[in-house]
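Before relying on records like the one below, remember that each one covers exactly one chain. Contacts with other chains, cofactors or solvent are not represented anywhere in the record.
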Amino acid sequence: MDLKKLIKTESEAIFEEVVAIRRHIHSHPELSFKEFETSAFIAKKLSSWGIAFEDRIVETGIIALIEGQNSEDHCIGLRADMDALPIAEESNASYKSQNEGIMHACGHDVHTAILLGTAKILYGNRHLLKTKVKLIFQPGEEQLPGGANLMIKEGALENPKVDEIYALHVFPELEVGKVGLKEGMYMASCDEIRITVNGKGGHGAMPHQNIDPILIASHLIVSLQQVVSRNCPPTIPSVLSFGRIEGLGATNVIPDTVSIEGTFRTMNEEWRKEAHVKIKRIANHLVEGMGGTVDVDIQVGYPYLENDAAVTRKAKEKCISFFGEDNVVDLPLRMTGEDFAYYSQKIPATFIRIGVRNEAKGIIYPVHNKRFDIDENALKIGIQTLLSQVFI
């Protein structure tokens, strides 16, 4: 049987249904670990197609297993995340968010719709399967401790044991029709930093009577940059950025405290731990040296994401075979984080990007943007990408 022709024919036949699924999920977004309606919608779809599943994993997660007469002991995992972000959508689309202040601005509606479409085709052609396929609909990718971490703890990779796992993610930098992969290290660990600088507030005209946390905080932010610029080995990608500083004083009022929030990201676990120590040490010494006190809270987030070389190479070859070499792109390192990294720490994994950009249609906005959208032809490309990993 011509499996490439089968994949193309089946994905074309299901395309309009998958578009409708995506639009329904997009218009009903739910925040991390609160995806109750989304979970019920997925369960209803799987049931209507006759696909058995287990639900209420980490409350809203769902796992389905598809196997055929020819399935071997090998098991492939396919994962889709399904939570949205606290962003107010700006769109004229008929399928724009109906839940105020919540939006699928990171494309998880797309991932879920693709996996549902893939599930229907796999089940309808299960007699051709030579491997078991475990479908993981995962909550809470956008919020620590990460749905992937919790799903793994509840046995998502067991019974049957998953031997390799794949996930897709929308990529607005790529034109629709293209896919991107990268062997080895791909995305960074992601830690959240919260610092409170305590001083002594008072009148801005008499700073000698105060301990100015605004001044201390400004010195601290500058000094902390040396953690990366003067301590990190040049071979280890690292980023330390601060995105929020708040000191509720006034033009003539020095506040008592200043809060600072930022992120630390890297691709080496030993250096990650060492950097945490340095951040705390610098903060304590500098702030105390200027007369204040400091509280440093570093919330350890997702680990780095490493795409298994052999699995990624195999995936790339299959994508080239299906889409052609011109449509398969080698990706650079990214310092963004992703909880799929937890899977990659456990078993061979690869994280594949699918292009969603279409400049002619004005579809140009990045993820986490209030105007983010996709060229829906990416849904078809996504289904074909996953099916090619299973069938070809």
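The longest strand covers residues 164-175.
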